[in-house]
Amino acid sequence: MRISLQLLLVLLVFAISSAYTSDLEVLLKLKSSMTSTWDSGLKDWDPSGESTSPHCFFSGVACDEDKRVVSLNMSFHNLSGSVPPEIGLLNKVENLILAANNLTGRIPAEMANLTSLKILNISNNMFMGNFPGEITLGMTQLEVLDIYNNNFSGLLPTGLVNLKNLKHLHLGGNFFFGRIPESYSKIQSLEYFACGGNELSGKIPASLAYLKRLKYMYLGYFNSYEGGIPPEFGSLTSLEVLDIASCNLSGEIPASLGHLKHLRRLYLQMNSLLGAIPHELSGLASLEHLDLSVNQLSGEIPGSFSKLENVTLIHLFKNNLSGPIPQFIGDLPNLQVLHIWGNNFTSELPANLGRNEKVTHLDASSNCLTGSIPQDLCKGGKLSEFILMNNFFSGPIPEELGYCKSLTKIRLMNNTLNGTIPAGIFNMPALTIIELTNNNFSGELPSNMSGNALERLDLSRNGITGRIPPAFDNFLNLKNLLLDGNRFYGKISEEIFRLKFLSGINLSTNNLSGAIPTSISSCTSLTSIDFSRNSLDGEIPSGIASLKNLGMLDVSQNHFSGQVPSEIQYMSSLVELDVSNNNLSGKIPASGQLLAFDDSSFSGNPNLCPPHNMSCQSLVNSAQASSSHGYKCWHSIRKLLVSIITLCLLSIY
Amino acid sequence: MAAASWPWTLSASLTVTLTVTLVSVANGNSEGDALYTLRKSLSDPDNVLQSWDPTLVNPCTWFHITCNQDNHVTRVDLGNSNLSGHLVRELGKLEHLQYLEVYKNNIQGSIPSELGNLRNLVSLDLYNNNISGIIPTSLGKLKSLVFLRLNGNRLTGPIPRELVGISSLKVVDVSNNDICGTIPTSGPFEHVPLNNFENNPRLEGPELLGLASYDTNCS
């Protein structure tokens, strides 16, 4: 008896000590299986040293009093290869986090032994094959199962539907196909459910509405469901975020969704939803983000939406919505982002818009809006994006917007706006694009201009007059300058060509005069020059040929004289050339790049002989004789010399 | 990584201005999508393509892109931009494109045959890159082409006979490649100087019309 008791003791001690070394051995086995040849941050997983249970001091490892591993976090360690079956021996582990590595292969069935698990996170790896839901059968304490962003395929696992404590289930970002199982409605403890970013199909089960504790549901992106949003979802009264975007939903938005009093974010964009926006959605008292964009919704914005006091973001763009933009939109106290472009909205923008001092982004472009621009848009000094293009707005840009230093984008083209552009617009620190094309703006540009962020300035097709200010060279990052179709006069200021990054300049169709500044040759980023249809004169500077990236040069319809610089024949980058309708003369060399252009590039210059044209040779000679003084002089001297030599020779004889 | 390897859950909560990857479905601007596909397959250390934002309604404000008044892309100016990577088939969707300037970079891969769909193309400048493969015969469909400059690459195969039918062609340069076969002599090729074919060791010289065998060992 005593012997067997001793034996029992020895066995017990042996068992316990085996248990220690087992966990240590398991961890060392994990390290050797899953680490790559170079450093992976597990250097300190070193079994040597005085401690009897060194593994409890490994980084990412925590033990209980019995020196058993209860927590193992190996995330972001560049692990690769597959998880060895030995992992199943860590049966006391409660938190197992292997996230953000390059692990591959399948989930070992031995993981079913991890019956103490509360948190299992293997997200952001490359695990593949089916996800064996059965391994969770014994994991009665499991609260978090996160397998997001792997290469799992097959059907969504159903082995986990009997878990009684599961709160967080993230199956998204894999290649699962088939339907969302109806049986998922059994997981009554669920608070977070995500299966977006897969290849799921079929109808979304209405039974998911039984998940009364559900706060977050993500079903969208890359999935392609049949049918629409189950109206039963209106009873998911704990829901805070509902994201069913971009997954082929059809039908109408159920009015019952208006019951979701705690819903903060409703994302239904990029589907094929139709019908009107239900006015019942005004019941979404907690709503902050509303995104119904890119659908086929029709009708008007419901007046009841004035109740949505907490809304910060409204995305309704690319639908078939119509009617006016209701006045209450201007009164919403928290509205920051209003994106309603690409609809058939009519009438005016609410005059109050911006008075809440919070508006940051406004894009109402491509509608049928009229009236003037609300003056308080930037009252809070936060307006960044200001886009109203393709509408029928009239009146001026309010002066107040000239003080709106937060502006990053102004795009107002294709309207009937008028007046002088506020000077402050040309002195903005963060403004990257000013696009005012095709309006009726008038007046002059300010002489003081600056802005290191400005990259594109397009004022074309307006009635702006005055001189082109030299201060354009203060826009240090300017890449495209389009001033065509205005009434600018005076010279092209030479300072413009100091801009190191200027790639495209279009001053066409103005009243500019004087010569092209020779400084143009230093503006080496230029790819496109259009000075056509002005009253420019002088010669085309030969320095233009040093612009190695110039692809387009149009100086047609001006009063340029002299010769076409022959250096242009060496400009291999130049594929578009138009010098027609000027007063150029001489013969254009029939060589190099100049051979590629046909006569239309050179026509309308009575004294110019294009490269291919042989018949104008005599015309050129007489033109040269009459127009070129020096040549005539040399001709006379030559005649005189010949006469003198002849006389000398005669006198010798 | 998986089908949705971009962090869509993050995006869901950051939907403020970004609807990035599915723009091709959402946006409906096929020209912007085609160019964005090009951006994704190019390596761009100088960030010349930084402004190529696919969430914009069209690519007409992107730098190095020029559009006409109907917001169709007419010019792509990416010469001398330190780009590598490769061209994409989707470029063939730019139906109004007239000038494709991608010269003096380090582009690899082959010339997509879909470029033959660019009916309005006036200039195809791919010279001084690292492009390999053959000159697609589909380029013979480019009936408005004036400039075809493919010199300074690693192109192989023959000069397609189909190019002879492009009467607008003025400047052809395939020098400094590994082209084989013979040089066409009819149509636009009557006026192309011989040094635009030089430094192609396997190029046999001008075609001799009437003789039987052509382009042996050259396919």
From TrEMBL, chain A:
Residues in Leucine-rich repeat-containing N-terminal plant-type domain copies: 22-64
InterPro entries: Leu-rich_rpt, Leu-rich_rpt_typical-subtyp, LRR_dom_sf, LRR_N_plant-typ, LRR_R13L4/SHOC2-like, Plant_RL_S/T_kinase
Primary location: membrane
Keywords: ATP-binding, Glycoprotein, Kinase, Leucine-rich repeat, Membrane, Nucleotide-binding, Receptor, Repeat, Serine/threonine-protein kinase, Signal, Transferase, Transmembrane, Transmembrane helix
Domain of life, per lineage: Eukaryota
Keyword check for Oxidoreductase: no
Domain Disease resistance R13L4/SHOC-2-like LRR: from-to ranges: 143-271
N-terminal signal peptide: 1-19
Gene3D superfamilies cross-referenced by the UniProt entry: Ribonuclease Inhibitor (3.80.10.10)
EC top class, as a word: transferase
Enzyme Commission number(s) of this protein: 2.7.11.1
Record field: catalytic activity: L-seryl-[protein] + ATP = O-phospho-L-seryl-[protein] + ADP + H(+); L-threonyl-[protein] + ATP = O-phospho-L-threonyl-[protein] + ADP + H(+)
Membrane disposition: Single-pass type I membrane protein
Keyword Mitochondrion: no
Subcellular location: Membrane
Name of this chain's protein: non-specific serine/threonine protein kinase
Organism of derivation: Hevea brasiliensis (Para rubber tree)
TrEMBL record, chain B:
UniProt-listed SUPFAM superfamilies: L domain-like
Entries under Pfam families matching the protein: LRR_14, LRRNT_2
Domain Disease resistance R13L4/SHOC-2-like LRR residue range list: 77-173
Signal peptide positions (record): 1-28
Start and end residues of each Leucine-rich repeat-containing N-terminal plant-type domain: 29-68
Keywords: Leucine-rich repeat, Repeat, Signal
Domain of life: Eukaryota
Gene3D superfamilies noted in UniProt: Ribonuclease Inhibitor
Full protein name: Leucine-rich repeat-containing N-terminal plant-type domain-containing protein
Gene source species: Hevea brasiliensis
